[in-house]
Design a protein that fits this description.
Elements (H helix, E strand, L loop, with lengths): L8 E4 L6 E2 L2 E2 L3 H7 L3 E6 L6 H10 L9 E3 H9 L8 E5 L2 H9 L3 E3 L8 E4 L7 H12 L3 E4 L5 E4 L2 E4 L1 H12 L4 E2 L6 H10 L4 E5 L2 H10 L3 E5 L6 H5 L9 E3 L9 H4 L7 E6 L2 E6 L6 H12 L9 E3 L2 H10 L1
Parallel strand pairs: 1-4, 1-13, 4-5, 6-7, 6-8, 8-9, 9-12, 13-14, 14-15, 17-18
Antiparallel strand pairs: 2-3, 10-11, 16-17
Helix pairs in contact: 5-6, 11-12
Length: 327
């Protein structure tokens, strides 16, 4: 059975999954447009509104509507409603679209801790610096509740990985000792909301980060697929704890068009793997076998071990070439 036959929707991460640095990843546009099932887009990036994200997807050639986009900005506002009255003053660190969304939700947006806000909402915005973080610290020390759209430590760009919102939040937490509440991934809220908006009973979550996309999908009791086009690489998968292990391992989104058995951890490509003490030995391999086939072969073995292996030892020339590609 093909992967897509087993589900009625895809809940897709964006950065590192659909695009990197704003440029679509090779094959992503064609796959998404032709997959034949409903798509939702679940992003921890709070710097753009759902409409702006949909516009960007359309400019990239992917047909999308704002209703198909779930952002962490929306999620944190929904989370804050559980403890914050409408009309409360809120200090917002983030983009203009985030500020507008908070205002439209019935809160009084202020710019200074001197205005005695009841809460601080922090979302990613590259213009946030020391003055803004200090205002947040002043407000939190004075008793304001602290909410963050997401806690991603890094953000993929066309130059590599930049500082993410979680790293900026960490500065305030370290300074104040405050507890921050996040509704972004890996919390299940966004996944459940996205599936509900699509009317999806059997969604598959897809992303490039184990600690957000995959862990969040598991928290929402959903199957998941990791793509190796962003943050996660083979060694992160080999060392992944149980709550961050995806159902499927994909080189790119295009792999999801394959039969599901090919994407599950297990021996393939002619490779074999076995435990040798604290190590794993990878042997054999067909002439045209790929590094990701070697990885899936190894993962079936290492995920059954009580601890991650000390070393992965390639024992054939083909296995050696495959492991070299992991780095």
């Amino acid at each position: 059975m093909g992967v897509l036959e087993a589900y009625d929707s895809l809940l897709l991460d964006l950065d590192g999954t659909v695009w990197n640095g704003g440029e679509p990843i090779e094959g992503a546009v064609d796959f998404i447009n032709s997959c034949g099932i409903a798509r939702g887009y679940v992003t921890n990036n709070a710097s753009r509104s759902a409409g702006a994200v949909a516009d960007k997807l359309n400019r990239a050639g992917i047909t999308a509507q704002p209703a198909e986009v779930t952002t962490s900005a929306q999620a944190i506002i929904d989370k804050a409603r559980e403890v914050l009255r409408g009309g409360s003053r809120v200090l917002v660190l983030g983009s203009e679209s985030f500020r507008g969304l908070v205002e439209d939700s019935g809160y009084d947006v202020v710019d200074s801790a001197a205005d005695k806000p009841a809460a601080v909402f922090q979302g990613f915005d590259p213009s946030v610096g020391w003055p803004e973080l200090s205002e947040a610290a002043y407000a939190v020390r004075a008793g304001a509740k602290y909410f963050a759209s997401n806690l991603d430590a890094s953000l993929p760009t066309d130059r590599g990985f930049a500082v993410g919102n979680g790293a900026l939040v960490a500065a305030v937490v370290h300074s104040t000792g405050a507890k921050v509440v996040s509704a972004g991934k890996p919390e299940p809220d966004m996944f459940l909301s996205a599936a509900d908006s699509l009317g999806s009973a059997r969604p598959l979550t897809v992303g490039d980060r184990l600690d957000t996309d995959i862990q969040g999908g598991q928290a929402a009791a959903m199957d998941s697929a990791v793509v190796l086009t962003g943050v996660t690489g083979p060694m992160q998968l080999i060392e992944a704890p149980v709550h961050q292990r995806p159902t499927y391992i994909c080189s790119t989104l295009r792999d999801l068009a394959e039969n599901r058995e090919l994407l599950l951890p297990g021996a393939q490509g002619g490779f074999t793997a076995r435990v040798d003490g604290a190590d794993v030995l990878l042997d054999n391999g067909d002439h045209h076998a790929t590094p990701v086939q070697a990885l899936r072969t190894v993962l079936e073995v290492v995920w059954a071990m009580p601890e991650p292996p000390r070393y992965i030892h390639p024992r054939s020339e083909i296995a050696e070439h495959a492991v070299e590609e992991w780095w």
